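User: Show me a protein chain along with its predicted structure.
Assistant: Here is one chain, sequence first, then structure tokens.
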Amino acid sequence: MNLSKTNVLFMAACTGLIVANLYYCQPLIVLIANEFKIPEASAGTITYLTQAGYAIGLFFMVPLGDKLERKKQILITTFASVIALILAATAKSFFLLQIASLLIGITSIVPQLILPLAASLSSVEQRGKVIGTIMSGLLVGILLSRTLSGFIGQVLGWRSMFYIAAGICLLIFFVIQNKFPVNKPQFQGTYGQLIQSLFTLIKTQPILREATIINVFSFAQFGAFWTTMVLLLSGKPFDFNSATIGLFGIVGASGALAAPLVGRLGDKGGSRVAVGYGCLLILLSFIIFYFSIESVIGIAIGIVFIDIGIQGVHISNQTRVYSLLPEARNRLNTVFMSFSFLGTAAGSAYGLFLWKLGGWHAVAIGCVVLSLLSLTVYGFTYKSKSKKEIKN
């Protein structure tokens, strides 16, 4: 069956609302640090623990979508996310909050189960557009989650945000139960064979390797920026509270409008070109950030560039990856996304390290280095490919 526009929009909404679980904690770092009486940089560890949990969930749970009925797996995982969010809301110590953050990451993989489901139910001609639309929902969820979280944290306290998130996920559970189509898997082997096949895919699929490496560097920059930006804006000369910091998510959300356009470009065979432009935009954003240590306008402009750049890289690479082996889409997505979010987790830790080392300027310089590495990979693989391969 082909997906209707209504189904695609439901999938986009569910994807955005669930992926938001990974980012609610970021504007709350200062509030959490104050309650548990720990340094803000230490409180920031929950950001990369959440991302690391997401990578773990991606690697060990998403491949099951090629073996289990996908709708059932999505429902079970969504309910588990409700439990993890309640654990965070009721945590009595920072250590328990760290454990809960890891579990939130592991159980928030539903977007990466929805995307292969949507790709499987889409025609080849519409696949890029469908993925782009669902990615718009995902990216809006990522960016507006910070705005919502900052406001709720300031008005009701940081624990309230996790209670509200649990309620949202419970509502999503019933929406998925009523609206999502059933999709039968094709893989007939054991779970061990399923995991082993991930390494076979890495070995045999050069496009998968290239797309994944570029995504790792891009997501690392994304994680480093959003983690340290909270520290920059909460200090001198800004002294912004969590609600004001969260408003910067709205600036980034404007860039999500580019996602369907990137998807359509992929349908026309221009995915790899979009990856290159995305890498350049991310590089430009950190050059702007370097000179914007005291400029709200500069930071806002940089946010638009980095978010459009991330979309150009991610959606285009994801469209390329999904075109490889239809029977292995969940496993291809596992390799691609688990390493991407390990990049985000490592980037958050990298950003905190650079912040301690030399503040905002060190973060910007460190991320420029990552941009140059991603462009090096892009350029090297460009030279080694034929024109036919470059088109993909």
